[in-house]
Design brief:
Serine Threonine Protein Phosphatase 5, Tetratricopeptide repeat, Rossmann fold, alpha/beta, 13 strands, 9% strand, single chain, seven-stranded parallel sheet, six-stranded parallel sheet, 47% helix
Length: 617
């Protein structure tokens, strides 16, 4: 509806005042005088035309309208809703919730108000409050998916993958063409071992079409071809991460006496990445390198976080910075080489990378696959995980380290005393174990494990216990394959040192494919536990074989399912052969001489950085 021109210019002028009280008296009188003439539509149009304004003045204008017209007036719910939007924009979340609640009291089916209340509660850490509001909301069909997707997101954050999967499936039955909902639905199905992952039908979509939207992380577990993983990741990036308006860093680099190397991560805390990289940070040659850490990690009070922060020359908290602001900060620091440690894992800052804030940008450790955005120059790897003959399939291109891609911490952990009895393990069984997250476990891999257990009657499989529904599904799938619950043992989560100590009591680690164990594989070899892997084509399916080759046990690398099963069964039935193989790990000393030689690794890592460094001619 067009707004009377008599109103619009003067309204636009006074809406730029900081508050009503700061207006000249004549403006205050005029503003109150026009309120009875404004219905909700005209008021909203005036506010829109008066941008930019401070939220505070519009909050007062909406309150004045409500004072003049009363709550029962037509348009009252809309004004309360808009008031909530402005209060939220001003940072007053408590009163924003009150405004939205008033809107709902007047119009119970104003689902947008319920949606916003839930967002505020979720953002404040009140997940249960958000879920209660969204579940109680009245909504038409076209809004149902929006609320269901938010419920699914919060349930996933609350570590309820079963509930999240069910809610997201309901959303997809209403509208199946939602790539983000498909991604999280399938990942939650992986987390609870609901197989086949893509079996529940989505209207009008084939399982193959649905797989295209599984997302980059799930693709590492579900696809054993580099081309498939790259395609899924590229399509995801094109949907989600847009180019920045400009590139910030000078292409020719900077002139510095020392190389300024910046590490960007949300995992400088009790996270697998920090356990791997901390000693590299400590050992950097400060005569050549100046180390910056752009940290959006939670403050968890852990010893590993304290070590990481202490190892940085410059610890820069950046959680409060938007991506563009973080990019400007990196550019201002004149970082020579920026190393992204997240990739596409939780906390990723891909938008920052798109600003190209450093002349050289690489990704490392966080996401074990290609990240095809033009602003990334390198994926740090070795020649085993990315063979040179298929390097052209990857983007960014590999930056090869001389020996092994994986950094490690050689500092000896403080392992507590443990026993099989204390951990609920049988003393007289051959214990196969796997401590990888359940989303890495495929139906095909589980088939192989169950065949091993059927052929090794004195064998048990020791798995991590992540979630009730996952345990139920694993036990049910085992029963389908003729394996009883007595051959499956579930281990609760424990502290990092306890986990390493108890792992040493197992006999053979059974690796997953196409997404291998990485940090966990290194931990197993470190405590002297042999590991059996099935190597495939992509980086993610070659991590464990790279570690086994480095530690001197390449015979534990298989390349097909039949050999994998046969070798596991053979080792369980041949104690002499098994003990001879395990003795070569020398209780972890073989790991220390190879994988754990962090001094050698650091020099190789630094040499790679020097090879790609850019300096003005």
């Amino acid at each position: 509806m067009a707004v009377t021109m008599d109103f619009a210019p003067q309204f636009a002028l006074i809406a730029r005042r900081p508050t009503v009280a700061s207006m000249p008296l004549g403006e205050q009188v005029w503003l109150r005088s026009i309120m009875p003439q404004l219905d909700f539509v005209r008021l909203s149009a005036l506010v829109d035309q008066a941008r930019p304004y401070t939220p505070a003045i519009v909050v007062e204008i909406y309150k004045l309208w409500l004072e003049v017209h009363g709550n029962a007036a037509a348009g009252g719910p809309g004004v309360w809703f808009n008031l909530g939007v402005e209060l939220s924009a001003a940072g007053d979340q408590a009163n924003a919730v009150t405004a939205y609640q008033n809107a709902l009291m007047l119009k119970p089916d104003l689902y947008q108000a319920a949606y916003n209340i839930g967002i505020i509660k979720s953002g404040a850490g009140d997940a249960d409050g958000a879920l209660a509001v969204w579940r109680a909301a009245l909504q038409p069909d076209e809004a149902r998916t929006m609320l269901l997707n938010q419920i699914g997101r919060v349930l996933e954050e609350k570590r309820d993958p079963d509930g999240a999967e069910q809610v997201l499936y309901r959303s997809l039955l209403t509208n199946p063409r939602q790539p983000d909902a498909i991604q999280h639905w399938s990942l939650n199905r992986q987390a609870i071992c609901a197989w086949p992952v893509f079996a529940p039908p989505l209207p009008g979509m084939s399982p193959e079409e649905v797989k295209r939207y599984c997302g980059p992380l799930a693709a590492l577990s579900l696809f054993d071809r580099v081309a498939d993983q790259i395609q899924i990741t590229r399509e995801w990036l094109e949907r989600k991460i847009k180019p920045a308006p400009q590139l910030l860093a000078p292409a020719e680099g900077y002139r510095h006496d020392r190389i300024r190397i910046g590490y960007m991560s949300s995992d400088f805390c009790a996270h697998a990445m920090s356990f791997l990289i901390v000693e590299l940070l400590e050992r950097h040659d400060r005569s050549k390198f100046e180390v910056f850490g752009y940290c959006s990690s939670r403050e968890d009070g852990s010893d590993i976080r304290r070590r990481v922060v202490a190892a940085l020359d410059h610890h820069i908290p950046v959680s409060h910075l938007k991506d563009a602001e973080l990019a400007q900060r990196i550019r201002a620091d004149e970082i020579d080489i920026l190393i992204d440690l997240n990739g596409l894992t939780k906390g990723a800052r891909m938008e920052t990378l798109r600003w190209k804030p450093a002349p050289v940008q690489a990704t490392y450790l966080g996401y074990i696959g290609g990240l095809p955005i033009p602003e990334l120059d390198y994926l740090i790897a070795d020649r085993h995980v990315i063979p040179p003959e298929i390097a052209d399939q990857y983007h960014p291109k590999p930056l090869y380290l001389d020996d092994l891609y994986q950094a490690n911490d050689s500092r000896a952990p403080q392992l507590p005393p443990v026993s099989r009895e204390g951990e609920g393990l049988p003393a007289d069984k051959f214990i196969f174990c796997t401590f990888s997250n359940h989303y890495k476990l495929t139906e095909e891999m589980f088939d192989a494990w169950m065949e091993i257990l059927r052929r090794v009657k004195h064998g048990v499989l020791w798995l991590v216990s992540d979630e009730k529904k996952a345990r139920e599904n694993i036990l049910a799938e085992a029963a389908k394959r003729g394996v009883g619950p007595e051959q499956l043992i579930f281990a609760p989560r424990v502290s990092p040192d306890h986990y390493k100590a108890r792992m040493a009591m197992a006999d053979l680690f059974l690796d997953t494919t196409p997404y291998n164990a990485g940090t966990v594989a290194s931990d197993a070899l470190r405590v002297g536990l042999p590991l059996l892997t099935l190597q495939g084509e992509p980086f993610a399916s070659r991590m464990a074989s790279a570690l086994l080759t480095a530690v001197g046990l390449p015979e534990l690398v298989t390349t097909n399912r039949a050999d994998y099963v046969e070798l596991a069964v053979s080792l369980a039935h041949d104690p002499a052969r098994y003990q001879a193989l395990r003795s070569r790990l020398d209780g972890g000393e073989a790991w220390m001489r190879s994988i754990g030689n962090t001094e050698r690794f650091t020099r190789q890592f630094e040499a790679a950085m020097e090879r790609v460094l850019k300096r003005p001619i």
